[in-house]
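Fold it.
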Amino acid sequence: MQKINAEELLKKYREGSCSDKELAILEEWYNQYSPFTSTKLADKEWAEDVLSILKELDKVNNVYKKPTHWRWIAAAACILLCVYMGSYFFRRNQPVDQLTAAKYDVNPGGNKAVLTLANGSQIVLNGQANGKLATQDGASITKTGDGLITYQSAPATDHDKAGFNTITTPAGGQYHVILSDGTNVFLNAASSITYPASFFGNHRTVQITGEAYFEVEHDKRRPFLVKCNGQTVQVLGTHFNINAYPEEPSIKTTLLQGSVEVSVRGRSNKIKPGQQARVSNAAISVADVDVDQAIGWKNGDFIFNGEDMETVMRQIARWYDVSIIYKNRSGHGKLFGTISRAKKLSEILQALEMNQNVHFKMEGRSIEVTP
């Protein structure tokens, strides 16, 4: 793209006249040249320019007819920077030792999981050919695509005979399963879900570890229950995300559609779309949040909105299956921005280095973090 084309696109964006194709070009440039967007740049020489550009582009919200997401503003600012700076910024910052990165670089995670049947037998799902995997309690278990398995069955009536299955993703893995009632479940890395091959009785109950996003099939006669770490989430039919990793300070349930009730040790709270319930030490707090951030992982992105370095590095460790070693835990600021989970580890670390006073050293599957 030549400079004049970029300027024309930016002008049309400010006027609110970009076509869908032109908006796609902006996002492509955003992803290519700004893997991590923040107003805090490591190179102070450019910080004032970036801030002035973002301030100018903030006026877009008063012009554009459709709701404008901050990523589009970041995309336009990125184009300006790329047009006028070229590769200068990237040449000057040289984050992550290139020879080390080339030797030890780690690919992003992918569709990896193990299915454990009620009889204890296990099926490694990645690498399995599409088709029928097993039959259990009248349920047909089928792999229909890379990263997806489905259950088809009539509801079971005998609790004692119902068989429970478990899907477990490793660090660096994710998976999608459609349960026998039609509910969609997306598992993040280092997570699991245990569920009956066919649902029975007056409730549909599953248990998870780690993180999962649910699109629950509506059934007013049989509430859907999700249990994790002493917490129960009850719904009839809705979309929500639960982050229940044991290393995180709280269990976070984020609601996108419908209504859910979060319960723990006799306490309960109902939350509305756009809200998040946090459970810590049996206490429940509710706040409005950015739901896009909560499900960024499910849509293929890391989205940071004021997280500290350790929180961010835990996400990276799970997705790339690496360990983190800190030489000094102080001196790191809050992180803001979006970066694709499809990028290699070295690209993620480079983006972080450009936005924080931090340096990474990669060796094998270990990352050393120093101020």
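The first strand starts at residue 110 and ends at 111.
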